[in-house]
Every structure is written in structure tokens, then in C-alpha cells.
Amino acid sequence: MATAVGQYRIGELASRVGLTDRTIRYYEELGLLESVKRLDGGVRVYTDDDVRRLKYIRKLKTLGLSLQEMLELENMYRRQRSNRTVLPRLMELLDAHLETLDGRLSELRGLREEIRSYKDHVAERLREEGGK
Known about the structure:
Layout: E1 7-8, H1 10-17, H2 21-30, E2 37-38, E3 44-47, H3 48-62, H4 67-80, H5 86-131
Antiparallel strand pairs: 1-3, 2-3
Helix pairs in contact: 4-5
């Protein structure tokens, strides 16, 4: 059964956005993806809006937002039907993730130095052992 132009079955959608069928269904169950149209026989049909939505969800996930945070933003949008309250909250979430990331980077820089120092220590021991 063919779908109309701009309509995709779940497998086509999954390929287009780089997600699995299961992930898309899960996002739908959570409410991150609005209820999906179905053809006769119950086959899910997705639109270009769903493609954009899923790409946006992937982007937010890449930026470190949790599914719970995305759901919070989605619920805010559904209540207000405006980005006026959503975008400031998104900024807060992104700021928090930047702060967390900065802390992790600092820890990793410290670990890098510790590894280098210990490597130098081991190299010195090797030189001492070789000289005996």
C-alpha cells in the first residue's frame, strides 16, 4: 500500500531521521510526538512535520537534554501554543547542561594531567630499571 507524497510509514521515517522504529514508537508513547495518523488497517503514517519534529528531538538529545526535559518543553508548548515560555526554559536547560559540561571538561583536564604525570613516573622507573 503506497502512501501519499509527504507521508511516510514508520520504516521510511526511521531511515529518514536516523532512528529506529522502536524509538519512534517510544517517543509517541511518551507524548513527544503527537498522535500519528493511521491508514485503514492501522498502519501509522507520518508527515513532514513529524520528520522535522524528530530531527529537533535528536538535536536536543545531542545537546544533552533528557527525554523528561523535552517532554516538559512539549507540555509547556501545548499549554501555551507559543514559544514565549518555552524558549526561555530551553535557555535555562541549555545553560545547566553547559555548566555540567564545563565541570566534566575540567575533571577530564585534571585526569589528563594525572595520566601524563603517572606516565612520566613509569617512564622514569623504566629508565632506572634499565640502568641496573
